[in-house]
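Hey,
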Amino acid sequence: MNDIETEQMQAIMGLIVNAGNARGFAKEAIDAAREKNFAEARSKLDEANSALNDAHNSQTAMLTKEASGDHVPLTLLMVHSQDHLMTAITYIDLAKELVAVYERIYKYIWNRDAIHCWTASLLWCKNDYMFKQVA
């Protein structure tokens, strides 16, 4: 393998590894949100975006080389790396939405339960007060 092929292989592998890491962090964000750990979920989304930026940098290196007139041969591994990148981008977009949905659901449930408990306590207090008045 010559220097050009080695450089191309490093860029491709950087794309695959970083895109895979980005997708993994996005999955961890969804898992954290499911467990009501929204600070951790946001942190994992930040990590996913950072890994995605690293993957984009690898892709940009290949695109810049091609744009400067230095033809980059298309290989199955390169196609595979682009597939990883697109999957990671889509997964992160959906993870952001799922984290937001989980957060809204848990806030709604908490507020609903808090209102229910508050209302129940008022009724209990009212009934207790009425019971004392009658007795």
